[in-house]
Write a structure and sequence with these properties.
Length: 424
């Protein structure tokens, strides 16, 4: 095993740097790295839940022989609706009526009336003419971007902290893409001014809230730039849809700028506790996107998952207290951590980061948290900068106040132990 590889995720990069390109050798080194982490009880990425996601669950580590009861802080079911009786009943009804699976893509008969009704509903939710359903949120981003942007005539400008699905879409498009400094309006405008006259098409892509830090994009200011320079604007609302805006319609709705955004995307796997992706746009762009390979050649979302998303939309409209409760718990956790002196960055959403900024301490704390019955994932380099390694605690409405208090008590003890906060 190579001992000069700082993180398993850097194995490919380090081996390529040293002239190793044989994929058999690379795979062998990945396995050696993973085996070592297993033996050290530091391989966390194959931990799994006995009965799927919830605020609390039985969790098993690959190096352990039994499950451990933990509070779970890595799940994006913000509204906690994946076990709601109404949602489960609607999934059962859809399965009985439509069966399991769709068997083919949307364009070759994979969609039912249920799919078409959900498309119309999401178009209204996002104040757009039409909506396209993709099988996953990842392919909604990667497929849409790759379809829209072809060749040197188009330049894509993305936030530096964009999700991997956005970056993959940019790479697949064949168009040039460049990042701007995270949430920096000045840097975005500088790049728009510098490059806009050199390309026929200019597409700016941002996320309304960023998944690794929970901070919010300056969408109103970006829309002002759009009006000034005339670029196309794509906003990923994966981490704001469901709990921002009227009945959870998203941050663009809350800010009153939905009409100014050309493409609004969200995933169905978070607030709506299902599977799939949504892109809402104009009739013309919808027609264009139906010819994307991600739409043409992937099996459609199963009917039960469509029914689940639809049922969650019902609850978001009829029971606003669900959204209010999520925010109450989010504010409660954030304030507790701030009062203790933890560094939680600029988070404003239910994604609450806790910056450790030291990889060795991060790894130790991840294991200690698990031993104390807290399950979350350390966010390490190269996913984030080495100086910005962190934990990420995602609040969802299934968490009880007791779960939050237990988490805070453990973090307080470990934070003092490792010098992240001051002791008594």
């Amino acid at each position: 095993m190579r001992k000069d590889i700082p993180q398993i995720g850097m194995t490919y990069q380090v081996l390529n740097r040293d002239g190793v390109f044989n994929i058999r050798e690379i795979a062998k080194e990945y396995y050696a790295q993973q085996t070592h982490l297993d033996e050290m009880e530091q391989w966390t990425h194959d931990r799994y839940l006995k009965q799927s996601s919830h605020a609390r669950a039985l969790v098993r580590s690959p190096s352990a022989n039994e499950f451990k009861s933990c509070s779970v802080w890595s799940i994006n079911h913000y509204l906690g609706l994946n076990r709601h009786p109404y949602v489960i009943e609607k999934a059962k009804e859809a399965t009985e009526l439509y069966g399991t699976g769709c068997g083919t893509s949307a364009m070759s008969g994979g969609h039912s009336q249920l799919h078409k009704d959900l498309q119309k509903r999401f178009a209204k939710v996002f104040s757009k003419e039409e909506c396209i359903l993709f099988p996953t949120g990842f392919t909604a981003n990667s497929g849409t971007i790759a379809a829209l942007c072809k060749g040197s005539e188009t330049l894509i400008i993305i936030d530096r902290d964009s999700h991997a699905s956005i970056i993959d879409g940019c790479r697949a498009s064949g168009s040039r893409f460049i990042p701007f400094k995270h949430n920096s309006i000045q840097d975005l405008e500088n790049k728009v001014k510098k490059f806009s006259g050199k390309h026929i098409n200019l597409l700016v892509i941002v996320e309304s809230a960023y998944s690794m830090e929970g901070d919010i994009a300056p969408l109103k200011k970006i829309v002002e730039l759009k009006k000034k320079y005339g670029f196309l604007l794509y906003v990923d609302e994966a981490h704001t849809f469901g709990f921002y805006g009227e009945n959870g319609r998203g941050l663009c709705n809350q800010l009153g700028i939905a009409d100014d955004v050309d493409f609004i995307m969200t995933t169905l796997s978070k607030s709506t506790a299902s599977m799939g992706g949504v892109v809402a746009t104009s009739k013309e762009f919808a027609s264009f996107l139906r010819w994307s390979t991600a739409y043409l050649f992937q099996a459609a979302i199963p009917a039960a998952d469509v029914a689940v998303a639809d049922a969650c939309l019902d609850l978001m409209s009829s029971q606003p207290e669900i959204i209010e409760s999520l925010w109450d718990k989010t504010h409660y956790l954030r304030q507790k951590l701030v009062d203790l002196g933890f560094d939680i960055g600029k988070s404003e959403s239910p994604i609450v980061p806790l910056f450790v900024r030291d990889s060795d301490i991060l790894k130790k704390m991840e294991k200690e948290l698990y031993e104390e019955g807290v399950f979350t994932i350390a966010i390490q380099y190269p996913v984030v900068k080495a100086s910005e390694v962190r934990f990420r605690f995602i609040v969802n409405n299934s968490h009880a106040i007791e779960d939050i208090d237990h988490l805070v008590d453990i973090l307080s003890k470990l934070g003092k132990k490792h010098g992240l906060i001051k002791g008594l």
